[in-house]
Amino acid sequence: MQILALNGSPRKQGNTDILIDEILRGARSGGHEAEKLRLYDYEIRPCIDCRRCKQSETGHTCALKDGMQKIYPKLEAADIIVFGTPIYWYGPTGMMKQLIDRLRPFIASRKLEGKIGMPVVPSEEGSDCCGPLLEMFRMSFEYLGMKTGESILARAYERGEIRQSPGELEKAYELGASLQL
């Protein structure tokens, strides 16, 4: 099984990064292939609503030529996609939202249908503030024909603070180790 993790946090070695690494470590222990992409390493421009991606004669491809051209095939190849983002104003980071907006080609092509999306969300307030973000992910996954998998909603704010919560790290590892289609 192929697992792709998308890290939408601007912080290297931050809480999102650490939780994703634990999930992937667990997944690899079960023999799965796993890759992590740091979204801030890619140029992801905003969707311009040209609607080219809706047209079958263009192969449902995006007109913008940027870092998404490297990410699209990885999304198609994955069985499970981890969407990691800290909470920013009760939603995802701008970079994660940019990526989600650019998933529009998959609405028409249905190439993500049946895949599992898993939110990983550290926040200062913990799970209590994650409702709006989780609903955005659930509705987006549903629109794309994806299934919503388990999520990790951890309380952590300062860089690396999640390391002080061994239970959360173990939960992330165990989630990765338990992954099955």
Please outline the helices and strands.
Elements: E1 2-7, H1 15-29, E2 33-38, H2 68-77, E3 80-84, H3 94-101, H4 105-109, E4 116-123, H5 131-144, E5 147-148, E6 152-155, H6 166-177
Description:
The protein is an alpha/beta fold and 181 residues long. The chain has a single domain (2-177), classed as Flavodoxin domain (Rossmann fold, 3-Layer(aba) Sandwich), CATH 3.40.50. It has 6 helices and 6 strands, in the order βαβαβααβαββα. The protein has helices at 15-29, 68-77, 94-101, 105-109, 131-144, 166-177; strands at 2-7, 33-38, 80-84, 116-123, 147-148, 152-155. Strands 1, 2, 3, 4, 5 and 6 form a 6-stranded parallel β-sheet that branches. Helix 1 crosses helix 6. It is globular.
Summarize the structure.
It contains 6 helices and 6 strands. The protein has 181 residues and is an alpha/beta fold.
Characterize the main sheet.
6 strands, parallel
Give the distance, in angstroms, between the N- and C-terminal Cα atoms.
8 Å
Q: Which CATH first-tier class would you pick? A: Alpha Beta
Give the ordered list of helices and strands: EHEHEHHEHEEH
Let me know the number of strands: 6
**Rg:** 16 Å
Poorly predicted runs of 5 or more residues: none
Binned strand content: 15-25%
- CATH superfamily membership, which one? Flavodoxin domain
Q: In CATH terms, what is the fold-level topology?
A: Rossmann fold
Number of helices: 6
**Helical coverage, percent range:** 25-40%
Tell me, briefly, the overall form: globular
Average pLDDT for all residues: 95
> What CATH architecture label applies?
3-Layer(aba) Sandwich
Q: What is the domain total for the residues? A: 1
Question: What structural category characterises the helix and strand content?
Answer: alpha/beta
